[in-house]
Amino acid sequence: MNKFSFIAVFLFGAIFSLVTTEPTEDKKILLDFIQKIPHSSAINWRMNSLACSNWTGVTCDHQRSSIIALRLPALSFHGPIPPNTLSRLSNLQILSLRSNGLSGPFPSDFSNLKNLTSLHLQCNNFSGPLPLNLSVWNNLSVLNLSHNGFTGSISPSVSSLTHLTVLSLANNSLSGEIPDFCISSLQIIDLSNNFFHWNRASISRKIS
Hints:
It is found in: Membrane. This protein is an alpha/beta fold.
């Protein structure tokens, strides 16, 4: 084999390896999730297909070694999120399950998703209190839990989310005092249609 043939074979092998590399463990996690969550929409997830290229809602990192984004809006999921499924996607940065029929409490094991930057759970049927310790998501920039049935108050730990730019908790049944946010990065905040003790002057002071 001459030098140029060797280089051609090497490059082909490298490209083939890049294309076929797959986040096998993350695929197993998603298949576990989809088998356990009730849903009525067909989803094209198969173990023998390429998740990074072909799976609905899935985005992988550049090395195709991890799933970093999962966007599954309006796919008719309903019921609680099965525990010990999505929470095992340790490199997940973006999670969107908006506009489904998900219910039950906020998944406590989501505290394992420490790399989250965006969490979109709006327009579902979640209920119960918000997470008490929000500081576990210290990279979070977008948090949208609006249009659910969450109750109770907002944890003061929200002030630890120093990268937060968007916070929407509108259209829930939240109550109590609004904590001091003191987050310089915060650009959009929507707490409307809840039962907070507040007025326009006090909220202006709390987010300034």
